[in-house]
Amino acid sequence: MLNTIIFSKDRPCQLDAFLRSMKIFWKNWQEETKVSIIWTYDGDQYLAGYEKMFKDHPEMNYVAQKGKDFKQIMISVTDPSIPYTAQFVDDIVFINPFTLKCPEFEAFRDDPDTACLSLRMHPGITYCYMQRKNVVPPPEMLTGRWAWIGLPGDEGYAMSQDGHIFRTEDVLPCIQNENYGHPNALEDKMTYVIPKRPYMRCFQKAKILNIPSNRVGQNIYNRVGNIPSDFLNDQYLKGLKIDIEPFFGIEVNAVHYEMTYSWI
User: Fold this and answer.
1) Phi, psi of 87, deg, nearest 5
2) Which of 89, 170, 174, 195 lies 20 to 30 Å from 80, alpha-carbon distance?
3) Ranges assigned E (strand) in the chain
């Protein structure tokens, strides 16, 4: 069983695409995970977008962040009795089938030296989008397990909120004891409170892809594309949705990949 925590701010349209793709590719999600969506917004137009999305995906557990203590929310949605925890951001889409009943998860579960199982990594990652540089993946990534400490780029970044599965016992002390006020600050804290597990694991083909179309976080200056969140929200309120089929099975050389959207 898995705690699945999804962070969303001003992106109901992109969150809708994430959830639709998850339901397609993670067939047993209702049996295998407890989903909590922590959402917040700036402006009534985004609130209207989320209200529409609540109706489109009524089976999810939505937790409003606005005006509340984010740390206390994280503590409340991270069930310590569930042995594994994953965090996602709302500009991700699932691109290949996934289940906890896969050999990669079983290998992670049985290997105490592994810090995480990454749904976004694969042996073909040769470019770090955020750092704007080419990288050479370690040869052992072909086996699905590699020593990550000290590596450049995404191959050396274990504590990511972009679809890494962790042991709850590893992330819970950070969630409970560190000081943070939003998801990016939490991820930053996680990079300094790292479990003493020297390996990461991945799949031969990525299960998810991050499509960095816009920036919504405060004081966060990660590289992104130029498709504004308000434009996407307006499209969603008009009754349009992102066409997710172009992402199915796509093979790219980075965990973040800018793409244009088509609409249905």
Assistant:
1) -120, 145
2) 89
3) 2-9, 33-40, 61-64, 84-89, 92-94, 114-118, 127-128, 133-134, 145-147, 164-167, 199-202, 208-210
